[in-house]
Design goal:
Helix content: 25-40%
Shape: globular
Order of helices and strands: HEHEHEHEHEHEHEHEH
Number of helices: 9
Largest sheet: 8 strands, parallel, barrel
Strand order of the largest sheet: 1-2-3-4-5-6-7-8
Radius of gyration: 19 Å
Number of strands: 8
Distance between the termini: 49 Å
């Protein structure tokens, strides 16, 4: 990748606009995030919605072909939608490339029998309804980590806190990382800080947050932030390619998630959706290449975290003793 120190970073279109007397104001240093990932680097990459070993193989092949570095690969259908053999195959394939694998935990409200999520208000959303739903998430977490999965995706505050306590108690490995889903992502600095204290190691914020919102969050928390650079339609369909450099400047440490708009949903995945899933997996990697090319053209592709890095550094937590 281009050495950012060799090329002064610039805003999109800036030389031409400056020549026409339409130059943008210089960035305010006070807006920049002071944080980075442990070991160096201000951004990592993530390919989401990788729903099984076959889709994973497509992602890995395409990332090699297009030279797209990957720090994390995540899945959205859930641990319970994969066999032990499938999980093991995914664990082994990502371990060979030193990529973190993140699987979604357990039941969620949108698939539950509760009707409130189907009302106009959306009810309780993705959250785990009742003791049994929490138990299902914990069952998924224990099973996945026993098979070698090191990152778990959660969509409920109670599940997050329970898994953080399980991690502290040694029920799941201490180096397990917990990622908050975009489906429940916080939209203000106060709630972002609460997720960090509940045990989140990275927090997916909605892709419609403004640049100022990111700066506000960074004034209270250094927890890694995940953001779809291109969001699926059910999360708004936002495409923020030209803002990538500024999103990093404001939001670091930041996972750049390469989603896909104008594509049907694939959760929960099954082989009846095979062709669509493989095609969209391949295209997500291509979207990543487009975003990285933009960073390079603007002289802003430096400061990527080393490949293979996955831990979040020291974060603020609530006390886990009862």
């Amino acid at each position: 990748m281009t050495d950012a120190s060799a090329t002064a970073a610039r805003k999109p279109g800036e030389p031409a606009l400056a020549a026409l007397g339409l130059a943008a104001p210089a960035p305010d240093p006070a807006d920049a995030s002071p944080h980075s990932f442990p070991g160096g680097g201000r951004w990592r990459t993530e390919i989401p919605s990788c729903e099984g070993p076959e889709a994973l193989a497509v992602v890995l092949k395409e990332s090699s072909r297009l030279d797209v570095p990957i720090h994390r690969i995540s899945q959205g259908s859930g641990v319970w939608m994969l066999t032990d053999a499938e999980i093991t195959e995914m664990v082994e394939a990502t371990a060979e490339r030193d990529i973190e694998l993140c699987l979604f935990t357990g039941p969620r409200g949108t698939w539950d029998i509760g009707g409130s999520t189907r009302t106009d208000s959306g009810g309780a959303g993705l959250r785990a309804r009742g003791h049994d739903a929490v138990a299902g998430c914990v069952e998924d977490a224990v099973r996945a980590t026993e098979l070698g999965v090191k990152c778990l995706l959660v969509a409920d505050e109670g599940v997050l806190w329970t898994l953080h306590r399980a991690r502290a108690a040694g029920i799941i490995p201490a180096d397990t990382t917990l990622k908050v889903s975009a489906l429940v992502g916080p939209v203000n600095p106060a709630s972002f800080a609460v997720y960090e204290r509940l045990g989140a190691d990275s927090v997916n914020v909605p892709s419609d947050l403004t640049l100022d919102h990111l700066t506000e969050i960074r004034r209270v928390s250094a927890a890694p932030m995940d953001m779809y650079i291109e969001a699926p339609d059910d999360l708004g369909g936002y495409v923020r390619m030209y803002e990538v450099a500024e999103l990093i400047r404001r939001g670091a440490p930041l996972y750049l998630k390469f989603g896909l708009a104008k594509a049907p949903g694939i959760y929960p995945y099954g082989h009846h959706m095979r062709e669509l899933t493989l095609a969209t997996a391949k295209e997500r990697v291509r979207r990543g290449r487009l975003a990285l090319d933009l960073l390079a053209r603007h002289g802003a592709d430096g400061d990527m975290a080393p490949l293979g890095s996955r831990l979040p550094g020291t974060l603020n937590r609530f006390e886990t003793t009862s």
